[in-house]
Amino acid sequence: ICHIFSTDLVPGDVMVIPLNGIIMPCDAVLINGTCIVNESMLTGESVPVTKTNLPNPSVDVKGKGDELYNPEIHKRHTLFCGTTVIQTRFYTGELVKAIVVRTGFSTSKGQLVRSILYPKPTDFKLYRDAYLFLLCLVAVAGIGFIYTIINSILNEVEIGIIIIESLDIITITVPPALPAAMTAGIVYAQRRLKKIGIFCISPQRINICGQLNLVCFDKTGTLTEDGLDLWGIQRVENTRFLLPEENVCNEMLVKSQFVACMATCHSLTKIEGVLSGDPLDLKMFEAIGWILEEATEEETALHNRIMPTVVRPPKQLLPESTPAGNQEMELFELPVSEECLLIGIVRQFPFSSALQRMSVVARVLGDKKMDAYMKGAPEVIASLCKPETVPVDFQKVLEDFTKQGFRVIALAHRKLESKLTWHKVQNISRDAIENNMDFMGLIIMQNKLKQETPAVLEDLHKANIRTVMVTGDNMLTAVSVARDCGMILPQDKVIIAEALPPKDGKVAKINWHYADSLTQCSHPSAIDSEDIPVKLVHDSLEDLQMTRYHFAMNGKSFSVILEHFQDLVPKLMLHGTVFARMAPDQKTQLIEALQNVDYFVGMCGDGANDCGALKRAHGGISLSELEASVASPFTSKTPSISCVPNLIREGRAALITSFCVCELALFSVVTYSLDHFIISILISNMLVLFSALQNCAFYSLV
């Protein structure tokens, strides 16, 4: 092992990840050990992620030996540049190692930095027209200059007076103070913004903000509070839903399979003694009040990687009782004490956005058989369960919760065969575990909006300013929050566009379905792109007049549409409202696509993953004083979207001031040219025309 500078790293180098963590200087794939990483620099979600080593093709699942490494497919094994490795774990004395795969601007962070340093120039019609206006003034000054010289020579005026009068018309026609006067409105607007806690590093953007007619919002930390809250659970017994229960932490449920699933099916870990992980998992685990215990560094160094994480309930939740004879009883129905109700998490299949689920294999201390627990999207979980265990009214109950804006998670369980030993479980495939499950019920989560969010969005809608959500969170949560905050009205319908890239000789296609019913439209791939808005969303003329439609899609679908369905992009931009699972570069591409259909786009976000979009937008405002504020033209001291209407208001004031200054600049020319009848008529006509244009611009802003 040798120590070198990070600038000397090249793809193919093997680097050792130190025990106390590191800020990754490159993209690398983990080949030994596990790491806990904070990827908020790229994703905006400050949730520690567990990274595992890349599976060995020689001993992995059959058929995977020829699979090539891909950073997108193997995200769970890739340490990205700029992310922070908080903690590492190694086994039997092995070092935590990673192979460098990308460096410099080729890394994920490098691409983000490049988009900040070299953004596409922002074109604003006001400044183009201002230059044209100055050219017109110069042309008028030139005409007056020549006219004055010729007229003075014919009248035999002295040369000195001719020079003074000729230059005088130039200085009056093109006032030297015009740039300063046009800046006055911007300066005063900037001062007023500072008083309300909005700081600006690019004053020229204030004028542009006066013409914003669409604003993109990040979700987490911008529209909503950070994290989710547990609203309650609804268990299933005898294929029927029980009444919703708010309190999960009680003696009646501590021995149930439902609580056992909540205690084990998660990706939580302890960092310096503090429980960390996905906010949803964290809230779920905190609700049951159980305790998580992990092997110490000394234990992992002495044992192999099968050393399990153990969960157990607190002592006060376990009633003391004695066993009743030799009667056979189901798992968790045995009267147990605190010491024997220990559940070890033997194997974890991490959450996959493509599969929309995660699962674990766990074992109760003293039990012969292992248990498989699974949680995820309700429709997906129900499809993997025995039909007879899913309640008949499952769809109705689920729809009732989603319409109220709740995030719903389903749970399932099954007993594994006794022949599955500890070591066999480590090599078993995911599909062998995630099938033939028993449906157990639903967990209902609530993503609380910030108090000011609905009112601000309502004000923007009244001003005919469109709002769009761009988030790294999943689709269901994003659509739910969009409905909850008023971005999508209750009577509006949401159509999810799921684009599939070319694969196995098949061309790219788009599947369309409604977000509420998740029912696939008939023959979606056969619909002509020109007819999609009519055939897909409007069943009748009356329906067309009464109902509005919104398109929603994730980042992968957005990329496929940009590449393979260019003719659909303008239509989707005009009616797209929710964009979920968007990577930083995809957010920037979305801003550009909206600008291509003549929108003046604002962007409001708080994470480093929003930097490229904040820089590219006509008016980007950061709600964070960290990385995002470096790239954003505007930074709000208070993390609230109430700054957006204030910024647009001041932008409009500065814009109208600029119009008025240009108009006033013509009066001095008219006053001077009273003795020159032809020039006077010409300039007066220009003044009337300019005033008409200014009034049109003013009313379009209001």
TrEMBL record:
<dbReference type="InterPro" id="IPR006544">
    <property type="entry name" value="P-type_TPase_V"/>
</dbReference>
<keyword id="KW-1278">Translocase</keyword>
<dbReference type="GO" id="GO:0140358">
    <property type="term" value="F:P-type transmembrane transporter activity"/>
</dbReference>
<dbReference type="InterPro" id="IPR044492">
    <property type="entry name" value="P_typ_ATPase_HD_dom"/>
</dbReference>
<dbReference type="InterPro" id="IPR001757">
    <property type="entry name" value="P_typ_ATPase"/>
</dbReference>
<dbReference type="GO" id="GO:0019829">
    <property type="term" value="F:ATPase-coupled monoatomic cation transmembrane transporter activity"/>
</dbReference>
<dbReference type="InterPro" id="IPR023298">
    <property type="entry name" value="ATPase_P-typ_TM_dom_sf"/>
</dbReference>
<dbReference type="InterPro" id="IPR008250">
    <property type="entry name" value="ATPase_P-typ_transduc_dom_A_sf"/>
</dbReference>
<keyword id="KW-0067">ATP-binding</keyword>
<dbReference type="GO" id="GO:0046872">
    <property type="term" value="F:metal ion binding"/>
</dbReference>
<dbReference type="InterPro" id="IPR023299">
    <property type="entry name" value="ATPase_P-typ_cyto_dom_N"/>
</dbReference>
<dbReference type="GO" id="GO:0015203">
    <property type="term" value="F:polyamine transmembrane transporter activity"/>
</dbReference>
<dbReference type="GO" id="GO:0006874">
    <property type="term" value="P:intracellular calcium ion homeostasis"/>
</dbReference>
<feature type="transmembrane region" description="Helical">
    <location>
        <begin position="653"/>
        <end position="672"/>
    </location>
</feature>
<feature type="transmembrane region" description="Helical">
    <location>
        <begin position="678"/>
        <end position="701"/>
    </location>
</feature>
<keyword id="KW-0597">Phosphoprotein</keyword>
<dbReference type="Pfam" id="PF13246">
    <property type="entry name" value="Cation_ATPase"/>
</dbReference>
<keyword id="KW-0967">Endosome</keyword>
<dbReference type="InterPro" id="IPR023214">
    <property type="entry name" value="HAD_sf"/>
</dbReference>
<comment type="similarity">
    <text>Belongs to the cation transport ATPase (P-type) (TC 3.A.3) family. Type V subfamily.</text>
</comment>
<dbReference type="InterPro" id="IPR059000">
    <property type="entry name" value="ATPase_P-type_domA"/>
</dbReference>
<dbReference type="GO" id="GO:0005524">
    <property type="term" value="F:ATP binding"/>
</dbReference>
<keyword id="KW-1133">Transmembrane helix</keyword>
<dbReference type="GO" id="GO:0016887">
    <property type="term" value="F:ATP hydrolysis activity"/>
</dbReference>
<keyword id="KW-0812">Transmembrane</keyword>
<feature type="transmembrane region" description="Helical">
    <location>
        <begin position="170"/>
        <end position="189"/>
    </location>
</feature>
<feature type="domain" description="P-type ATPase A">
    <location>
        <begin position="5"/>
        <end position="116"/>
    </location>
</feature>
<feature type="transmembrane region" description="Helical">
    <location>
        <begin position="130"/>
        <end position="150"/>
    </location>
</feature>
<dbReference type="InterPro" id="IPR018303">
    <property type="entry name" value="ATPase_P-typ_P_site"/>
</dbReference>
<protein>
    <submittedName>
        <fullName>ATPase 13A3</fullName>
    </submittedName>
</protein>
<keyword id="KW-0460">Magnesium</keyword>
<keyword id="KW-0472">Membrane</keyword>
<dbReference type="Pfam" id="PF00122">
    <property type="entry name" value="E1-E2_ATPase"/>
</dbReference>
<dbReference type="GO" id="GO:0031902">
    <property type="term" value="C:late endosome membrane"/>
</dbReference>
<keyword id="KW-0547">Nucleotide-binding</keyword>
<keyword id="KW-0479">Metal-binding</keyword>
<dbReference type="InterPro" id="IPR036412">
    <property type="entry name" value="HAD-like_sf"/>
</dbReference>
